[in-house]
Design a protein that fits this description.
The complex is a heterodimer of chains A (152) and B (741). Chain A is α+β, with helices and mostly antiparallel strands. A five-stranded mixed beta sheet of chain A has the order 2-1-5-3-4, covered by helices on one side. The N and C termini of chain A lie far apart (46 Å). In chain B, helix 9 packs parallel to helix 16 and helix 12 packs parallel to helix 13. The model of chain B has no long low-confidence stretch (mean pLDDT 96). Chain B is of the alpha+beta class and 741 residues long. The chains are: A alpha+beta (152), B alpha+beta (741). Chains A and B meet through helix 2, helix 3, helix 4 and helix 5 of A and helix 1 and helix 15 of B.
Chain lengths: 152, 741
Amino acid sequence: MIVSFIVNGEEVAPRVSAPTSLLDVLRDELNLPGSKSACEQGECGSCSVILDGELVCSCLVMAADAEGSEVVTVEGLGEGAIHPVQQAMHEAGAVQCGFCTPGFVVAAANLFAANAHPTSAEIKEALAGNICRCTGYGAIIRAFQGLSDQTS
Amino acid sequence: MTIDTTTRSRNIEGRVGDSPLRPDGIAKLKGEFEYAQDLTAENMLWAATVRSPHPHARIVSIDIAPALAIGGVHAVLTADDVPGRATFGLEHPDQPVLAGTEVKFWGEPVAIVAAEDEATARSAARAVVVEYEVLDPLVDPQAADERDEVFRRMLIKNGDQKASGDVVVEGYYEVGMQDQAPLGMEAGLAVPDAQGGVDLYATSQFVHVDQEQVVASLGLRPDQVRSHPTGVGGAFGAREDVNLHIHLCLLALHTGQPVKMVYHRSESFTGHVHRHPARMWYRHEANRDGKLVRVEARILLDGGAYASTTSAVLANACYFAVGPYTCESVKVVGIGTRTNNPPCGAMRGFGAVQVCFAHEAQMDKLAARLGIDPIELRRLNVLTKGSPLATTGQPIDTPLPIHEILDSLVAMPMPDDRIPDDALSLPGGTGLTTSPSEVVRGVGYAVGIKNLGFSEGFDDYAQARVKLTNEGAIVETAAIEVGQGLVTVMAQIARTALGVSRAEVRFVDTSRIDSAGSTSASRQTQITGGATLEAATKLRDRILSLHSGDELDDEGVWRDGTLIVPMAQIVDQNFEETVTFRHPPTQPPDENGRGTIHADFALAGHRAVVDVDQELGLVRVVRIDTAQDVGRALNPESVRGQIEGGIMQGVGLAVMEELIVTDGVIRNPNFTDYLLPTILDAPDVESLLIEEDGSWGPFGAKGVGEPPTISSTAAIAAAIRDATGKPINRVPVRPQDIALA
């Protein structure tokens, strides 16, 4: 079947087989490998995308359910430049192996779009669905606390 | 080692001691960094693995015809299709590339499939019919010991074996099976070269040892197989052993097409080795003044079905069984068993983690028995530079600032002692299960020690090449960047040694440079770093001596303050130096387990603060303070990242992470049931880097990756004991160990 939706502002209409996840379609059909597959069951957040304004694990969304939707992936953030959450993570040393990183970027961008000055507790709660195995989260927390503290 | 600093280049950014940002950071943040999972090639096939559903069975027959009959399937291969050595293994090649007659663990590969897409490959794998005669699995390591099913036995005897002390404390301790759980799953792409050879791009910690094993099992010449460093999503020991590497190359050569395979998470849990579960019996004897007189330990590690690195992990557990303490009389018995449980091997800390949990519990127990403060008891017995390691007798010739570590930990500020009442900060979390009135706080300390680099006489070396080009300094290495940051640190070393501001690390395949050794044992900063420093220093010295200059910088060669040869002219000469660096030689143990067995040592200490819901047995790790012996921090922010990440894996082992294996079967091979710490589980961490000159690493650097994981678990266990008074002789600590003990 053909599923039509918008990814990062562009209309796409990939041919998908019925049981395919949105994540697989993004990675394999639409050449958007920034979203990562790491647990396949919505536990780790590495595949996070924004679907019609909601943060979702794209491994848990059937591709067919994206019909008519608007999807933003890590590749669509920052409009070609560096998104502030990316810059904050870079400067805080919040990237090691980087495999979880796109998921954190998307989840944090979603948080900061709604709340420019989240508290520490709000940051942690917003990122509780993303697992990082390298950093121990310290640098990630410092990155976003720093971003939150910046006066806009 | 120190290096002359030229005055001209002292102000360039990104030298040793600075914390420059990762050169691969932006690509990773934008999702553009290429991991093994992301690789594709023209005409590429997908592979899948047929795995044993039994922990132990005889293979009666394998029928591949139903799989081959599926449209789009290009190959189904079994043990009969392995043209070279039928087995592989890091230390002993005892593991079949594909099981032919018998399967020895749950999930063992039996056949491999290549097809036009992943779904077809997986359907075909399910269609292979394997008839098994199910056999009884041997899953009890004590039974394996009795039947002499062992990979290695260790016996260390040091000092007067009849020594005895005024007081005796005994204990039995267990450590569960932990998984490295790197976020990136095993993945790779093999591309045939049309001349019978193959290029492999796969998740790895050590491409040269992968290449050797592919060469052996494919029956090829070494020059026909090139293993390429590629993007790795974390490792922590899980990628030291071969898994899909030989399979991919077999399929690529068989089909004549590029072949890709990516494990699924459940497969990943069977496709790599785990941290050894341990059972440990300890007896400490001390005089009334607190001085240790004798330590006896019996350490049983279950290696599972195949050897992997069990021999070395067991040895490490035994060598560090006493911890960072002196004791003149020691006996350690070690057993690494062979069972039908999942194979175990390398994980961050490599044997030192398990024994640290036990020896630190013993020290606390002894302190309580003697009525001495636990920190004071440690101070009375600490190992320092010049004293011999209690087990091997090897004199310590590296800085060992354990007094500084203990003093720092005690002096670091404690958190507010008020128990928080917000749900996010309570042990039960937002489930609102915890009643704040049931919560008690505890504080615990632990220190741990481990070797750096490979030991026991292993020829441990790394080669690096440094070039000076019109793009700046280029460092070439086959070392693996798993996320730890050697891509940053090697460039810092090159900048510092050469005096130039531009430096870049390039990862090259096995045909273009000799081995960098494994990205494990906390060794790359010291060993590939040592090679990089030596190559860059030789390069600078050669250029200066050729032109009789006295300084080199971005502008060129200077003499007496005058630029005599501009950089453009120097880079035209294509200067490069290739250096192989070896750490100080080590020896295998003598018949009593003694000798100069290790090349270097590092220490860390941790103080944990925990809140415990006594009624429900739930724990929240509130805070960890740490001081670590780092020699010299080449990139302090990167060291801090290693410390915080390593501590979190220690938190996981202390209270969350365990692969549950019953009857040889992993019951929780997924991230829903194998619990990894999230950001809400993250304690506040304050880390102090203790720098002291004297290690042979570049600029005095020590490896920093493993020490954070060694004693953090033990400190948390001690804090839970402090809070609850419960024995806590097992990690991970389960609710019943608190609520029902």
